Amino acid sequence: MTVSPPHAGFSTDATSARALHVLDKAGYGAWLEAQPDATRAWLSTQQFDAAPGSQVLLPGEGGVAAAILGIGDPLDPYSYAHAPGALPEGDWTPARAPAAEHAAALQLGWGLGAYRFTRYKDRGRAPARLALEAPDAETLDVLAACIRVRDLVNTPTQDMGPEQLEEVAREVATAHGATFESIVGDALLAENFPAIHAVGRASHRAPRLLKLQWGFDGDTGAHPHLVLVGKGVCFDTGGLDIKPADGMRHMKKDMGGAAHAIALAELVMARALPLRLTLLVPAVENAIGPDAYRPGEVVATRKGVSVEIDNTDAEGRVVLCDALAHAGELAPDLILDFATLTGAARIALGPDLPALFANDDALAGDWLAAGERERDPLWRMPLWRPYLRYLTSDIADIANAGSRMAGAVTAALYLERFVPEGTPWAHLDVYAWNDSARAGRPKGGEALGLRAAYAMLKARCAQG
């Protein structure tokens, strides 16, 4: 698989780099007072005030000598993300070493702003580079995880079907010494994953369940067992309840949950968190064909819960329920799932705020707090169990849909049915996409809640 260079916006040689003054509006005033009259006149003429998202070049004898980058919240990576595209090409280095917590945000924001998806198209001028003699390795790993999500989601379906998603997960497993297996096609029926098979059986690309495990050897038996589950619907036509054209246009992104889960698993292994890790990805294409599953069918599931198909476009929860049931069989300490599950979550919270559901208040609180610290926000939504009435079926144990009311809540309640009682579990209904471009957020695939999830897991590991 071809991915964008993860660190294209960086250099480790600062010898020829131009100075970059990184200032917020409050710090700009004090800095300006210490400058020569000519510099103050230059900046006054341009009415520069270091507003967030601004920049200005400072002249010198040989042309551009330095620049000022105006920022807002110094802990927010996106405060710095305009720099790679706004500054001239070449190397830039901070004129004054930032505080450690600000340095990580600067490095991450610069990398996000330098991102280009170039697999099919030349993106023009190269981004300006941040010259750091000793880049922070953990920040680079977090950046690589964000880029992994973007690249996977941005890749069109012809190059990112279930088999290609398997290749990526297998490569990740091999790189980190993890075990890997894939259950493909009719073997899903033999291995008792009937719901995954039902959704994916109409496609010419065989459905599959991907399973990666890491950290189960040696003296790691006491480490907590984390299971990550990601919705891997590599394209979603809606099935026989077909989507309209505008609703189908970007459905290459319906494997965005799998992209998040794979990237987080890769990050956990790269940083060697003291965990035992299982990654489960049901990878399918929800296609239309003679063998497509139909509205009104009753689908068997791994847990033995029968599901009436009210809507074939509510397929994500159907493939996830088998994966969650298997996750529960592993008796883990924690289950996290990621899914581009409902339009209702986007209507409620918009594209930037993933909807968090959890059956454990401490888990939800930890993830929310990590989101605040990392400036990677998410919003908790209720598992309002009276709304299970919207999933009532007359002929099966549960329906996969049934009402336009509280769609994100009912989807989460459906998933909860397949999680063992007493097992801490959180579900993130994530958009995985930017509808329009902003600094550091190009139109296309996006990692949301991922940095917060990693920070939450790291903090929990530190607490023992």
Automatic annotation (TrEMBL):
SUPFAM superfamilies: Zn-dependent exopeptidases. Residues 311-318 form the Cytosol aminopeptidase domain. One of its GO terms (biological process) is proteolysis. One of its GO terms (cellular component) is cytoplasm. One of its GO terms (molecular function) is metalloaminopeptidase activity. Gene3D superfamilies: Leucine Aminopeptidase, subunit E, domain 1, Zn peptidases. The keyword NAD does not apply. InterPro entries: Leucine_aapep/pepB, Macro_dom-like, Peptidase_M17_C, Peptidase_M17_N_1. Transmembrane segments: none annotated. The keyword Mitochondrion does not apply. Keywords: Aminopeptidase, Hydrolase, Manganese, Protease. Belongs to the peptidase M17 family. This is Leucyl aminopeptidase family protein.
